[in-house]
TrEMBL record:
InterPro entries: Rax2-like_C (IPR024982), Rax2-like_second (IPR048266), Rax2-like_third (IPR048265)
Species of origin: Naumovozyma dairenensis (strain ATCC 10597 / BCRC 20456 / CBS 421 / NBRC 0211 / NRRL Y-12639)
Keyword Transmembrane helix among record annotations: yes
All copies of domain Rax2-like third, residue ranges: 424-574
Protein name, UniProt field: Bud site selection protein RAX2
Pfam families membership: Rax2, Rax2_2, Rax2_3
Sequence ranges assigned to domain Rax2-like second in this UniProt record: 247-412
Keywords: Membrane, Signal, Transmembrane, Transmembrane helix
Segments passing through the bilayer: 1160-1187
Record GO cellular component, one term: cellular bud scar
Signal peptide start and end residues: 1-18
Region (Disordered): 1120-1152
GO terms for biological process, alphabetical: axial cellular bud site selection; bipolar cellular bud site selection; intracellular protein localization
Domain Rax2-like C-terminal: 878-1114
Length: 1219
């Protein structure tokens, strides 16, 4: 009882751990197809061959296999859901074309989570679907839509979904993170909700059992109170206010200055050096006026007082020429830390007072405040004070008036202006930053047209464009925004009245792109014939990073081919509201808000049931959280992946990759700050480590895909030279493939980039595999078991496949072959301009043929090879060649468009029966003639009783000739199949009246199998029957080959092996699909193999490579070949002549003769054998006695050199070439 229980338990464990292949096949009725083992003992090397340009091959193993062997049709559905295991592909789902499965994640032992857009079996993929392989059922995980999932982490029964989405939890919006508890089948949320509005989660990494890392683009939490950190009252200088700047610094380098009698250095003034004075005025009052080259609406002014105590300004005011008045200002009092206002008399503190006050700060709010919905900030430090303009008006000049001094003179290091709009000018000189040391600033670029400055005092530029002559005018604006938030983008167009271009102005297309330049945020056509300056709002909404805006010419106002004036002025990106990390505080001196910059280390134990009920639960400010603030730029996306237990890769969309080593507490031990420079778009794991994709500088070389396996390495032989956004891993047929952006395919196993071919075609969007070797992927695939065959192949008894082209030493296509002896074969090979003959031992014959070789026969006794060659619109030839001396015995040229389809050799007559589609005028024969290659003479055969087209000929027992085609036999027309007795030349018509040429036949035992281009038929015992099949009308059969079977396929009566035949060609079977070969055992059809080829014209020709010489080479003497009689088929015919064609010996018989019982045959044969042996023995003894030497000695006989030695020892280059 115990044993039974243990056995059943182990069996259950085995079933659960095995792949779901058998289960899926049972549900979908996918049955195996058992291919019979062929008996190939009669063929050389126990193989038969497929000749031609063969790229790949698969043996048919299961129904439905054909769905994954034919090429992917362009425009077809290439996003299906496919299952793969143990070299078996099964279609699970066929969704509509608008369905996109973006992620497939294994879950448990038998399920996968599917995420994407569109639907599958009526279920929306945005609900995140659970696909169960045991039941092939689909279940939605959430009852709400999760639009864009970028990453999924499975942590036991809890599944984390991260991405770019918003979900409702009661009355609260949760951003970018949601969880599913598979045990309770419930939706869950973390205590802090998500990561704030407009956040994105790119990666969720499980660091250990207690720590999970979130990486993406975020700066806060939905519940920011969890970021409040306790501090001690003794902490000072906890916040460096110089790290935050809201708004754009107005470039002053193109400004002009009114300095009066003061000393002024403009270069030092616009790029402040706080240790130097740039403006000095003797006395305690003075003024400095900045005249801007364009109008701005300043939001604040930053003033750097003089470093010299005797020259420091103590009171000032700000005037604007346009307002002709004093500006109202707001500032933070460094002593009281309160917001204050001033106008005519504003205080400017000395540097000594600022330094002492800064040392006493305890909170960021002491030094910085946000104004106007976070669109303006004012702050102070030891070096400067900032004053915000209460009234924001457009100005073209700003005047600083010093009213008093701490000493005897007034001086400044500098003042700077800020505005809450990022202005970018088409004239890029106006965008130049104040300091060359500034790494990034707004900029613009122009097309290669003749751009000119506009009117004097204006900031716009213009160009005259002539269509089809000049480059298309183009302007690109690149504003550099610092923080994510809500923005409005306006484009300014100068008026046409002043420059008198209203009639020639153009229509332009203005497009707002995201930071990657891949997605369009907004686009608009703008007519530039406005009379006065105008602006158009292009976009209003959220921006997480710097956009790019382009202006491009579309047409003239009145016609697309007229000369047009294109103008470009400036772009303004207005700040509506911002998300600035670290600028919110509760105002107390013992707490601060922890800053986030795309990384959050979440410790699960901090939020356990016991601790989560208290108000002390916080997010710990770990070294990983701090790392993103210290070593990565702000306003970019973070990515993460774990290489091993303590090696973490952190990537940034604008900062390369850093390798971080963690200790057992998940604190940073080391951080390689210069791991890899560049931009990261994602990570993907594979067998060789971790793949990082984006754009990188590796060893001074730009690359888009790198591997990390302890060090960063270039992917060998990978040649995609553009940015990468997605990498999908798929292992199939034990070969690991990486599909990059569903465009390039990289073979990890061979370290090579491959392309779609007839042997492998792959479209792959997503893939997932579990530990039980179940793989589910979305896409389409056409794959064969044997790929990269590159030519002709040999197929063995045990379904082995080997390339034979290399053995023949040919780089060209083999397309027909002939057995010569047990160790040697000869092939016809096609080059671009001619055909040649090649031997299987690697040598080539010294003849070339401008036409294609369509038939060959060989006589081993004569070592004679007869070759028939023909081609469309070319002369056909008959060549008789000696393979011992490599001489040409005879050569005959036939008329254009003639073709020889068959040759029968009679050695003792030195004569060939030649059949085909031709006419020999001098011998008055058509389609069937005699040719004597000793006398080079064409002769009439059988008194010209047969004429027409002969498609195929074979000898039967050496005494009968079986012919097919479409011909006349004396008074009978349209004969398709006939047999001729070669002793009497009597012709018996077997089939007639079919207008189609009977293209091919095969004799198998008592049967003749025929193909007329439409259907297969069998002739036996004087009666015809149609061989039933599921072929459609598009089927073409190239040849019929008799074959013997091994024990795999048995007769139903259990009597052993059964004979049948193989057909090859392009077979369209309604049950098995499109295949290239099928086997028939006279009871049922079995699919055999599927091949692919780049050249279908010469691919898949079966060459059995066995001695079939009895079918075309006769040892009999052809007597009186001009006599003939014709008979019609008799309904009482006792049978069909048998052939020696099969690989198995067959019982032979002749037409019209009575059968002899097998027992009598054996007795008669035994008696004749004994008598013959006795008689030969007696004769031998008598001859030996008569001719013996007198001394009893004798010389050994020297054997004749065999043909193999001749072929191997005669150097081909010394032989005459026949053309």
């Amino acid at each position: 009882m115990l044993f039974s229980w243990v056995f059943n338990f182990l069996l259950l464990i085995h079933i659960l751990q095995a792949s779901q292949l058998s289960n899926i096949k049972n549900i979908l009725n996918v049955t195996n197809v058992n291919i019979p083992t062929l008996n190939l003992t009669a063929s050389n090397d126990d193989t038969f061959q497929l000749l031609g340009d063969i790229d790949g091959l698969s043996f048919y193993r299961y129904k439905g296999q054909q769905n994954f062997t034919t090429g992917i049709i362009p425009g077809s559905n290439s996003n299906g859901l496919i299952y793969y295991s143990n070299n078996t592909l099964i279609q699970l789902e066929e969704p509509s074309n608008d369905t996109y499965i973006a992620k497939i994640t294994p879950f448990g032992s038998d399920s996968f989570i599917l995420s994407g857009t569109g639907s599958l079996s009526g279920y929306s993929l945005t609900n995140q679907l659970l696909y169960n392989l045991t039941t092939l059922s689909i279940e939605p995980i959430f009852n709400t839509s999760i639009e864009e999932v970028k990453t999924i982490l499975i942590d036991d029964s809890l599944v984390y979904f991260g991405g770019n989405f918003t979900v409702l939890n009661g009355t609260s919006n949760i951003h970018s993170l949601i969880m599913w508890d598979s045990t309770s089948s419930s939706t869950e949320f973390l205590n802090f909700g998500g990561f704030g509005e407009n956040s994105i989660i790119n990666s969720i990494v499980k660091l250990n059992d207690d720590n999970i890392l979130f990486a993406g683009e975020f700066y806060t939490l939905d519940e920011p109170d969890f970021l409040i950190q306790n501090t001690t009252s003794s902490q000072n200088n906890i916040f460096n206010s110089t790290t935050v700047d809201i708004g754009q610094l107005v470039p002053l380098s193109a400004s002009t200055w009114d300095t009066g009698e003061s000393t002024f250095d403009s270069d030092t003034f616009v790029c402040p050096d706080t240790t130097e004075e740039s403006w000095i005025q003797s006395g305690t009052t003075g003024s400095l006026t900045c005249k801007l080259p364009f109008e701005v609406a300043p939001t604040k002014i930053r003033i750097y007082n003089s470093p010299n105590e005797d020259n420091q300004v103590s009171l000032f005011r700000i005037l604007t020429n346009e307002a002709q008045g004093i500006m109202n200002l707001t500032y933070i009092d460094p002593i009281s830390h309160e917001l204050k206002h001033c106008d005519a008399f504003c205080p400017l503190y000395s540097k000594a007072i600022l330094s002492q006050a800064y040392a006493n700060t305890t909170s960021p709010s002491d030094t910085i405040h946000l104004l106007a919905d976070n669109t303006t900030d004012i702050k102070w430090t030891q070096e400067f004070q900032e004053f915000a303009f209460i009234n924001q008006i457009s100005v073209s000049s700003v005047q600083f008036v010093a009213l008093d001094s701490y000493g005897n003179n007034v001086a400044l290091s500098s003042f700077q202006l800020y505005q809450n709009a990022y202005a970018v000018f088409a004239n890029d000189t106006l965008n130049e930053p104040n300091c060359n040391s500034i790494e990034s600033s707004s900029s613009s670029s122009l097309s290669a047209n003749d751009w000119e400055m506009g009117l004097t005092g204006q900031t716009y530029i213009s160009t005259t464009y002539t269509p089809n002559q000049d480059p298309v005018p183009y302007v690109s604006f690149s504003p550099q925004i610092k923080y994510p938030g809500q923005y409005s983008i306006n484009i300014y167009t100068p008026g046409c009245t002043q420059d008198d271009t209203c009639s020639s102005r153009a229509i332009v297309n203005v497009t707002v792109w995201d930071s990657d330049g891949t997605s369009i945020l907004a686009t608009e056509l703008i007519y530039q014939n406005n009379k006065e300056l105008k602006y158009d709002e292009l976009y209003s909404g959220y921006l997480s990073s710097s956009p790019r805006v382009t202006i491009e010419y579309v047409s003239g106002l009145y016609a697309s081919n007229t000369v047009a004036t294109v103008v470009a002025d400036r772009l303004n990106v207005l700040i509506d509201s911002l998300e600035v990390p670290g600028l919110t505080s509760n105002g107390t001196n013992n707490t601060e808000i922890m800053n986030l910059n795309g990384l959050l280390q979440y410790q699960i134990s901090n939020f356990s049931t016991s601790s989560s009920e208290t108000t002390d639960v916080k997010i710990t400010n770990t070294s990983l959280n701090q790392l993103s603030l210290e070593q990565f730029s702000k306003n970019t996306s973070m990515y993460a992946d774990l290489y091993d237990d303590n090696t973490l890769l952190l990537g940034n969309s604008n900062g390369g990759i850093k390798v971080v080593k963690l200790n057992e507490n998940m604190d940073i031990e080391s951080s390689n700050e210069a791991s890899l420079t560049g931009n990261t778009a994602g990570f993907s794991s594979y067998s060789g480590g971790i793949l990082a994709y984006g754009e990188y500088n590796l060893s001074s070389k730009i690359t888009y895909l790198v591997n990390y396996n302890g060090t960063f390495n270039e992917i060998p032989n990978f040649n995609k030279n553009s940015s990468i956004t997605n990498v999908v891993n798929l292992t199939i047929h034990d070969t690991e493939l990486l599909v990059i952006d569903n465009q390039a395919i990289y073979n990890v196993s061979s370290s090579s980039t491959i392309t779609n071919s007839s042997a492998l075609q792959l479209s792959l969007w997503s893939s997932g595999s579990n530990l039980n070797r179940d793989t589910v992927f979305s896409g389409a695939i056409a794959l064969l078991d044997y790929t990269d065959l590159n030519g002709s192949i040999a197929i063995g008894n045990n379904f082995t496949v080997t390339n034979i082209t290399n053995n023949v030493s040919s780089t060209n296509s083999l397309y027909t072959g002939l057995f010569l002896n047990d160790s040697l074969s000869i092939y016809a090979s096609k080059t671009d301009s001619y055909s040649e003959l090649l031997f299987s031992n690697g040598y080539s014959a010294p003849w070339s043929f401008f036409e294609g070789i369509n038939y060959m026969v060989y006589s081993s006794h004569q070592t004679m090879l007869a070759v028939a060659s023909s081609d469309f619109n070319k002369n056909s030839e008959l060549s008789i060649l000696n393979l011992t001396t490599f001489e040409t015995i005879a050569n005959e040229t036939l008329n254009v468009n003639s073709k020889i389809n068959g040759l029968i050799n009679f050695e003792h007559n030195s004569t060939l029966i030649v059949g085909g589609n031709f006419t020999i005028l001098q011998s008055n024969c058509s389609g069937l003639c005699l040719y004597n290659y000793d006398s080079n003479e064409w002769l009439t055969f059988a008194n010209h009783s047969i004429n027409g087209t002969i498609a195929q000929m074979e000898l039967i027992n050496g005494t009968q000739l079986l012919l097919s085609g479409l011909f006349n036999a004396q008074n009978i027309s349209s004969v398709n199949l006939a047999i001729m007795d070669l002793s009497t030349y009597a012709v018996s018509s077997i089939k007639m009246g079919d207008a189609n040429i009977l293209q091919s036949f095969a004799t198998i035992g008592d049967k003749i199998i025929t193909w007329n281009g439409i259907m297969l038929e069998s002739y036996e015992n004087g009666a015809w029957s149609t061989i039933q099949s599921n072929f459609n009308s598009s089927t073409t059969i190239r040849s019929i080959e008799p074959i013997g079977f091994g024990p795999t396929l048995q007769k139903r009566d259990g009597t052993g092996s059964a004979d049948g035949f193989i057909i090859n060609g392009n077979i369209y079977d309604t049950e098995y699909g499109t295949i290239q070969a099928m086997i028939y055992n006279f009871k049922e059809w079995r699919p055999y193999y599927i091949i692919s080829s780049t050249n279908s014209q010469i691919a898949g020709q079966i060459f059995m490579n066995r001695d079939d010489s009895a079918l075309y080479n006769s040892q009999s003497v052809l007597q009186n070949p001009n006599n003939a009689t014709v008979t019609t088929p008799s309904s009482t015919s006792s049978g069909t002549p048998s052939a020696t064609h099969s690989s198995q010996p067959h019982h032979q018989k002749q037409v019209g003769r009575k059968k002899i019982d097998r027992g009598f045959v054996v007795l008669i044969g035994l008696a004749l054998a004994l008598g013959t042996v006795s008689l030969l023995g007696i004769i031998g003894l008598v001859l030996a006695y008569i001719f013996k030497d007198g001394d009893g000695s004798h010389d050994a006989l020297n054997p004749r050199t065999n043909e193999d030695e001749m072929l191997e020892t005669v150097p081909p280059e010394k032989l005459m070439k026949f053309l």
